[in-house]
Amino acid sequence: AARPAADYMAGLNAAQCAAVEALDGPVLLLAGAGTGKTRALTTRIAHLIAMGRARPGDILAVTFTNKAAREMKERIARLMGETVEGMPWLGTFHSISVKILRRHAELVGSGTMHLKPSFTILDTDDQLRLLKQLIAAENIDEKRWPARMLAGLIDGWKNRALTPSRVPPGESHAYDGRGAALYAAYQERLIALNAVDFGDLLLHCVTIFQAHPDILARWQQRFSYILVDEYQDTNAAQYLWLRLLAQAHRNICCVGDDDQSIYGWRGAEVGNILRFEQDFPGAQVIRLEQNYRSTPHILAAASGLIASNKGRLGKTLWTEAEGGERVRLIGHWDSEAEARWIGEEIEAFHGGHRAAVGKRDLNDIAILVRATHQMRAFEDRFLSIGLPYRVIGGPRFYERQEIRDALAYFRLAVSPADDLAFERVVNVPKRGLGEKAVQTIQREARERGLSLLEGAAAAVQAGALSGKAAAGLREFVQGMGRWHADAIDSQSSHVELAERILDESGYTAMWQNDRSPDAPGRLDNLKELVKALEGFENLQGFLEHIALVMDAAEGEQSDEVSIMTLHAAKGLEFPVVFLPGWEDGLFPSQRSMDESGLKGLEEERRLAYVGITRAEDLATISFAGNRRMYGQWQSSLPSRFVDELPEDHVEVLTPPGLYGGGFGAAMAQAGTTSMHERAARADVYNSPGWKRMQDRAAERAAPVHRTPIVIDAEPGARFSVGDRVTHP
Ligand code: ATP
Ligand code: MG
User: Fold this and answer.
1) Ligand 1, atom 26, residue with closest C-alpha
2) 386: left (phi over 0), alpha (psi -120 to 50) or beta
3) Which atom of ligand 1 is nearest to the CA of 42?
4) What number is the average pLDDT over the span 371-379?
5) 31 is known to lie in a ligand binding site
6) Contact status, residue 721 vs residue 674, Cβ threshold 8 Å
7) N or C: which end of the chain has fewer CB within 10 A?
8) Which SS3 state, helix, strand or coil, does residue 725 take?
9) CA 272, 277, 283, 284 torsion-angle sign
């Protein structure tokens, strides 16, 4: 059907045009990666305005990340040019909720206690401090019931839009049956402080909408059109929020892909997308099948992989594009070799030395990792070869809280006069030193012209503190004395010292006892930090390196490689994508499989699908034979996802150096389904390359653990997928 298409519609296919033009009533755009869902969504906004259906301010568009919101704003500005004034309400659920909540803050609370429009948004540290006070006030043992776990519980309830009075009785058994009571107390304290936490932003909006139909009606009128991107990742509270706002006019358009649902662990419910037609009867469901992003090999590899998931809606994807490279697969000796190789590849692409890829800007290249602790190897490598990079969606490795804490300990051990480091860690973990105690130390130091650490020693000597504070501080000062002596003793191992400092100070234990979901990741990061020390002569040298790293990280550069987690990459695209760390246990992550079984594994597989489908021209998957995880060198096996890639669309590269011709060559011999079977069949486990790998593992691990590493499997043994070769 030929029709005069507006400029902004030029090039859209028929299904996309349908999605853009179906302005009235509920619309679900359900389609696979790279099919132009987001593009259709932004075009819809332009169309609404161009057709005079809505002014920009009448439109509400929800994205998943702030980065996506920014990108969408740019897309819309490009589409609409300078012709329209104002912009739609465009942002994440949270950023839009803040704006709404500021206007009705006084409706939150009861009696004389109400939120004010100037409310502050608490960060996690403040939140925990508050919860700790409440737990203590209830005389509950915080060791048994840590504040972080309560924070996780409350967050979970808020994700489900449950106010304290609505928490199901069965879920309140934690905290000696006072879970919901603590939650209620916490909410009261927040209001008294004129503060909200992140989860409150949505919860309060929903509560206000439900309690004040007049206010809800105003917002329903105001937003005459609602659009939602990445709908598969909405949680129950967000879903309720949307339904309340949309139920009057029902002009809601949601776009999503059930195969890209990756936030189940945070309460997102993929069921929301499957239920759309029931919730909004008469909804139009539009499917898109043409992919505009990736080459056929990339698409086929991703589709082949996701086919292993059960219970999918199922989708067809095709592309007009032809040619292109297969997805490249390469195994490395260890995670450092992996980082080195990727660095070299990027330099080659950047310099235009690879005909098949063409000359590439660094902005065209992304490294997508499963776990944040993987980033360090890349950051260190890129800094040392001077390759500009940026880390998206989270602090850089050396800026993380636990890393800064640990570095402060090391700094203080090396330079006892480092007062900033002292202040950072003197009460981390908690040593019973309140503000008063710290002031006493500061006064002591100031009056006698001492460093804070010396001041602390003097305060202990003089008996200026009492009780728990005195004992805690004495232990800290004595520990520092020992660690300092070791730090300046060239005979002692600085790697061991670092581990000892973290153990003896109670810092490691603090995170081990922490039951919050991010605690295991922080422990991994700490181990990663200790591992980084191995490359240096002593602590001092390492700290100098870090100071430079932090410094170099300052300047803004425009052409940079992007490093981010797979989660942060959702919705984005890059011509060249590296996917490192495809090893069983890391990806799929052991933790998510342990916690959620098959469901966890399938979510991991969707994450892999998201990763591959970010690539336009070239995707490179890699794994390392050795990686230090949980403080031990482990010979890891390639991810089961590697086995699930359709072989026709994969090219196995031979790694440079050490065991080229071993692992790599074995993998190239196609014919069986399992990589490990293939390796065993090619007698890799008897090959000199594999033996060298074992020897090197022993060598590397020895200085740390002082016991030679033995791989507890017979050479030549058959491995089945998921088997793990561990060191004792
Ligand atoms: P994801 O599931 O990863 O979020 P998506 O379905 O939202 O993907 P988009 O990001 O909208 O896909 O589009 C993918 C790429 O294809 C973009 O570069 C977009 O500009 C391009 N594209 C979309 N539709 C068309 C079209 N009709 N013609 C040409 N290019 C298109
Ligand atoms: Mg998209």
Assistant:
1) 12
2) left
3) 11
4) 89
5) yes
6) yes
7) N
8) strand
9) positive
Which two three-digit tokens encode residue 126?
A: 């403040």
Phi, psi of 248 (to 5 degrees): -75, -55
The predicted-structure confidence for 589-630, as pLDDT tens digits, reads as follows 988 888 888 889 999 999 999 999 999 999 999 999 888 665
Instruction: Report residue 490 CA to chain centroid gap.
Output: 39
pLDDT at 117: 83
Distance in angstroms (rounded) separating the CA atoms of residues 474 and 214: 61
Instruction: Please tell me the distance from the alpha carbon of residue 280 to that of residue 286, in angstroms, as a whole number.
Output: 14
Is residue 130 helix, strand or coil?
helix
CA of 502 to the centre of ligand 2 (A): 43
List the one residue out of 364, 246, 288 whose CA is nearest residue 616: 364
694 is catalytic: no
Question: What type of residue sits at position 134?
Answer: L
Ligand 1 center from residue 271 Cα (angstroms): 24
Token output for 641 = 């996802």
Question: Tokens 């932090």 belong to which residue?
Answer: 550
Interface pTM (ipTM) of the complex?
Answer: 0.99
Structural contact between residues 300 and 28, judged by C-beta atoms closer than 8 angstroms = no
Spacing, Cα 619 to ligand 2 middle (Å): 19
In this prediction, residue 656 carries a pLDDT of: 65
Taking all residues of the chain, what is their mean pLDDT, rounded to a whole number?
83
CA-based R_g, the chain, Å: 28
Atom of ligand 1 nearest to the CA of 260: 2
DSSP 719: P
Burial class (CB in 10 A: 0-12, 13-18, 19+), 602: buried
**pLDDT tens string 496-507:** 999 999 999 999
> Is it the case that residue 705 has pLDDT exceeding 60?
no
